[in-house]
């Protein structure tokens, strides 16, 4: 969920026929990029992604979640969890998320 210089760098570095997927801009930074760096990438594209629209299109996220779980189990997908807490007391985790103090994922344990 980036914009600004990070998104501009991704557009500069994307491989030919590759895709940069944007699902937000939490920094609210305006993105400016040099088209001369992007258009020669032969088929590269910038894709806007909204989870709810994708769920409406596919009808389910089951296949995607299954694939992610399999990749994580095979250690092919790194899942950085930096905060863990009980769902009975979510305030600490919610404050950390709101304060942008979480690097990676925050997990609430159902206990």
Residue runs with pLDDT of under 50 for 5 or more positions: none
- Determine the N-to-C terminus distance: 30 Å
User: Can you count the helices?
Assistant: 5
Computed structural class: alpha/beta
Cross-sheet strand order for the largest sheet: 1-2
**What Rg is obtained from the alpha carbons, in whole angstroms?**
17 Å
Q: What string, H for helix and E for strand, traces the elements in order? A: HEHEHHEHE
Mean pLDDT: 89
Shape: globular
Topology:
Layout: H1 4-13, E1 19-22, H2 35-38, E2 45-48, H3 51-58, H4 62-73, E3 81-86, H5 91-98, E4 105-109
Parallel strand pairs: 1-2, 3-4
Structural write-up:
The strands form two sheets. A two-stranded parallel sheet has the order 1-2. A two-stranded parallel ribbon has the order 3-4. The protein has helices spanning 4-13, 35-38, 51-58, 62-73, 91-98, and strands at residues 19-22, 45-48, 81-86, 105-109. Helices cover 38% and strands 17% of the residues. The chain has 111 residues and is α/β, with parallel strands linked by helices. The model has no long low-confidence stretch (mean pLDDT 89). The protein is built from five helices and four strands. Helix 2 (35-38) links the parallel strand 1 and strand 2. The chain starts with a helix and ends with a strand.
What is the structure about, briefly put?
The chain is an alpha/beta fold and 111 residues long.
Features:
111 residues; alpha/beta; two-stranded parallel ribbon; 5 helices; 4 strands; 38% helix; globular
């Amino acid at each position: 969920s980036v914009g600004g210089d990070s998104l501009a760098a991704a557009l500069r570095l994307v491989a030919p026929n590759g895709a940069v997927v944007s699902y937000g801009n939490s920094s609210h930074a305006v993105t400016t990029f040099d088209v001369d760096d992007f258009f020669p990438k032969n088929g590269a594209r910038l894709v806007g992604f909204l989870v709810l629209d994708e769920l409406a299109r596919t009808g389910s996220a089951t296949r995607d979640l299954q694939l992610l779980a399999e990749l994580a189990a095979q250690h092919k997908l790194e899942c950085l969890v930096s905060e863990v807490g009980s769902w009975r007391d979510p305030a600490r985790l919610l404050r950390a998320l709101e304060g942008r103090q979480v690097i990676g994922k925050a997990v609430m344990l159902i206990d």
